[in-house]
């Protein structure tokens, strides 16, 4: 009687997997409402109008440093705007917008800070998405 001994199967050692991570600079997300004086025929608020008032608030409160803060507009809806700024500038933007009253010819234009944080989903709430509707 002949017995054969099974040799262990030769298997390749697992190849190491390469994992990559993209480092993004941390951001602060801010939801603002532009407060405009009541007008019978108010023009619709558009992105350039929002940015003009944001730059005015930032340069008034922070000078040249405020004017240099990069702002990403994520969405506008009516008088609401969602923006993204670098995390280190987030509290300065909130302070500048929250205390801003501007406009000429006796008009009072201001900002109301609706919310801010490091996570966009926390600002939206109520199950709606910032990019919906």
UniProtKB/TrEMBL annotation:
GO terms for biological process: intronic box C/D snoRNA processing; nuclear-transcribed mRNA catabolic process, RNase MRP-dependent; tRNA processing. Residues 1-10 have a biased composition (Low complexity). Residues 28-100 form the Ribonucleases P/MRP subunit Pop8-like domain. One of its GO terms (cellular component) is nucleolar ribonuclease P complex. GO terms for molecular function: ribonuclease MRP activity; ribonuclease P activity. InterPro entries: Pop8, Pop8-like_dom. Coiled coil: none annotated. This is Ribonucleases P/MRP subunit Pop8-like domain-containing protein. It comes from Saccharata proteae CBS 121410.
